[in-house]
Design brief:
46% helix, alpha/beta, 225 residues
């Protein structure tokens, strides 16, 4: 078993449940704007959001473009007018949500006694830090790296290189844990990091990028460290 100097954790859908948090923020956004919320609206939002993030992971658009486009596309699909800046309101509401993935506190408390821990995410720095603070997770981390502050996005090589430079950690002794095969596993592996795919749905492993480890529960990470 390798001996690591540090462990990096992705944020959304690894530490914090984005699906639960975004559903709550989405409903609160519509309520704040006094727009009737149809049951199908959130499913439509998720479809658009996932499609845009897929394009971002392929390098076709930026994180900022994902955030700027998704509500415009949603309004067009639903046949409604954009009321104010829905993205800004959604972002504000999302920053107040902090629902965690199962077993997060337990694995961070355990791993944090052994290694320095870091959080790394695409998105907006202030929002991600706020969510980790509200969830009570920020104290576990030596530092938090977010794409808009780094000037690079996962899965770009520069994102991971920046994380290593700013943390002072060596790629040969760093473990990267995340839920996205494209953004986390492929991106981290490309710069020589060991990777652990958090796969709670039990999806079949791809031929490439093939993660060094696969866990369905975060508690299973104990056996890696």
């Amino acid at each position: 078993m390798p001996v690591y100097d540090a462990i990096f954790f992705d944020v959304d859908d690894t530490l914090l449940s984005f699906s639960k948090s975004s559903r709550q923020a989405f409903a609160e956004t519509f309520a704040a704007l006094e727009i009737p919320l149809e049951e199908s609206a959130y499913a439509c939002f998720l479809e658009i959001d996932r499609r845009l993030w897929t394009r971002q992971k392929r390098g076709e658009i930026t994180v900022r473009q994902v955030l700027d486009r998704r509500f415009g596309q949603l309004a067009e699909r639903l046949g409604i007018e954009l009321a104010g800046d829905m993205q800004a309101i959604f972002q504000e509401k999302l920053a107040q949500t902090h629902q965690t993935e199962p077993g997060v506190r337990e694995i961070l408390a355990y791993a944090g006694k052994i290694y320095p821990l870091y959080a790394a995410s695409n998105g907006i720095y202030d929002m991600q830090v706020q969510r980790l603070k509200l969830a009570g997770l920020e104290p576990y981390f030596q530092d938090i790296f977010v794409s808009d502050a780094l000037g690079a996005e996962k899965p770009q090589r520069e994102f991971f290189e920046q994380c290593l430079r700013e943390s002072g950690k060596r790629r040969k002794s760093t473990l990267w844990i995340g839920d996205s095969l494209e953004a986390d596993i492929a991106g981290a592996a490309a710069v020589g990091l060991d990777t652990c795919w958090y796969n709670p749905q039990g999806l079949p492993a791809p031929d490439a990028p093939f993660p060094k480890y696969i866990v369905r529960k975060l508690d299973e990470c104990r056996k890696l460290i």
